[in-house]
Amino acid sequence: MALNNDDNKQSPLANTDFISEKIKQRPINKKKLFRRTVITFALAVLFGIVACFTFLVLQPLFSDRLFPEKEPEAISFPAESASDELTPEEMFADDSEIAAVEAMSLEESQKGQIDAAIASYNFDSSDYGKMMNSLKSIASEAGRSMVKVTGLSNDANWFSESIQSSTATSGAIVADNGVSLFILVPYSAVEEADSIRVTFCDNTTATANIRLADSVSKFCILNVRIAALSEETKDHILVATLGSSNSNSITGRPVIAVGSPIGVQDSIAYGIITSEKTSLDLPDTDYKLLTTDIAGSSNGSGALINLSGQIVGMIDMAYTPEDLKGNICAVGITELKSLIEDLSNLKDRAYLGVHGTTIPTDIIQAGNIPAGAYITLTEMNSPAMKAGIQSGDIITAFNSQEITSYEMLIARLAECKPDDIITITVMRQAPTDYISLDIEVTLEKSTHG
Question: 424 near 389, Cβ under 8 Å?
Answer without folding.
Answer: yes
